[in-house]
Amino acid sequence: MINQGLTICICTYQRAQLLNLLLEDISRQTVLPELIVVVDGCPDGEVIPVLQKMALQSGISFTYLPSNHPNLSYQRYLGWLAAQEISAAYLLYLDDDLRLHQQDAIEKLVGYLQADAQVVGVTSVINFGKMDDIFSSQPALADQQSVRNQAYFFLQWFRSAQKVKPGGLSPTGNRFLPIQNGKCSTVQWLRGGVMLFRMSALTLNCFSADLFALDHIRCGKGEDTILSRRVMQFGKLVYAHDVVIDHPNSDIPKTYPTSAYKLAYATAYSRRFLNDHYRTTRQPYFRDRMALLGSYIGNGLINFGRAFVRPRRYRFAYATGYFVGSMRGLIQKPTAKNMAPQINWWADAGQAFDMKINI
After folding, report:
1. Are strands 61-66 and 32-40 parallel, antiparallel or unpaired?
2. What is the pLDDT of residue 147?
3. Contact, 60 vs 32, CB < 8 A?
4. β-pairing, 236-247 with 119-128?
């Protein structure tokens, strides 16, 4: 069954094979979209044949949009433009390396928006796979996964993690999972891999040239949080416990750096952007700024402590990168003018949109 109001946007980057698997999963869903928009961050000719083949097999309409910047938040904006053009009612963003083994996943996600007019955004459970051999060259990623819980308790001493309710968000962008009590929970953020929005709430003001520029310098961690927080001004965000989507970790991340120094630098500097926009339409409070400072101090101590207690080259690189990113976060406000003054994002988006191909 095709939902005439539903558009799916998939932002991809050099993952034609994984994209094909996801599209096959979508074609087997109980509810199909009216249109799938694929925004290609690396237009190398490999994606269009995949879409042509899938269009013939599934009967779904596709729009191929070659992006002139390999930049996730900017690519999401291009996908929104395509959904706007056909007056879509709902826009579902999916990462290109997901698998939809639950065949009614899309039907259930859309159902939350159809059942409650106050709901403007929905996300789901994402089941992450193990970081196996493919991540062996990027040990900092696996290392950070292992320290998240202990870091949270340590950071409480530095007041950087306030007593946030389940489903809430701290002023430095730490997201807290909701407690399952029924099919869904109200939250204050959405997971970037799976974000379904009501188009009436996803306006132009939800997108930001500052965020595009942050992504441009490879520091755009948390862009999903910013987008969903801006949509939250118009209604409720929901976390669907009854929808589980798989993320097999079949490829290393493409949207942010994975080497220890650069990963840490991006993590630290992006915290400043999250802190700046935590209140969405208001300037951050003094306590928000103190939370950011506490987060920088606490994480710095954790990072250097681990490096000295269990010495590894990548741990020293991570600790150094986080320190340098923190210093920049304290000194320089992340704006498009500061980070990428040479780029006119809105003009570039118009040029990219003119290159779209309907399949």
Report:
1. parallel
2. 60
3. yes
4. parallel
How far apart CA 352 and CA 75 sit, in angstroms, is: 10
Query: Which residue stretches of the chain have pLDDT < 50?
Result: 160
d(C-alpha 260, C-alpha 141), whole Å: 8
What residues does each domain of the chain span?
A: 2-354
CB 18 within 8 A of CB 94: no
- Amino acid identity, position 152: Y
The pLDDT value given to residue 9: 98
Place of tokens 């999250």: 274
Q: Which pair of structure tokens corresponds to residue 280?
A: 């969405």
**From the CB of residue 92, how many other CB atoms can be counted at a distance below 10 Å?**
24
Kindly give, in sequence order, each residue whose CB lies less than 8 Å from that of residue 42, ignoring residues fewer than 6 positions away: 13, 14, 70
- The mean of the pLDDT values for the chain is 91
Q: How far apart are CA 261 and CA 322, in angstroms?
A: 7
The CA distance from 289 to 333, in Å, is 13
Q: Is 323 exposed, middle or buried (0-12, 13-18, 19+ CB in 10 A)?
A: middle
Class of domain 2-354: alpha beta
Cβ-contact 22, 50 below 8 angstroms: no
Give the span between the Cα atoms of 251 and 95, in whole angstroms. Answer: 12
Distance (Å) of CA 278 to CA 212, 223, 263, 287: 17, 12, 22, 12
Half-sphere CA count of 150, side-chain side, radius 13 A: 10
Nearest to 331 by CA among 263, 257, 268: 268
pLDDT in tens, 324-340: 999 999 999 999 999 99
At 334 the three-state DSSP class reads coil
**23-40, pLDDT tens digit by residue?**
999 999 999 999 999 999
C-alpha R_g of the chain: 20
Q: Tokens for 275? A: 């802190």
Task: Say if residues 64 and 357 touch (Cβ distance below 8 Å).
Answer: yes
Does residue 76 contact residue 11 with C-beta atoms inside 8 Å?
A: yes
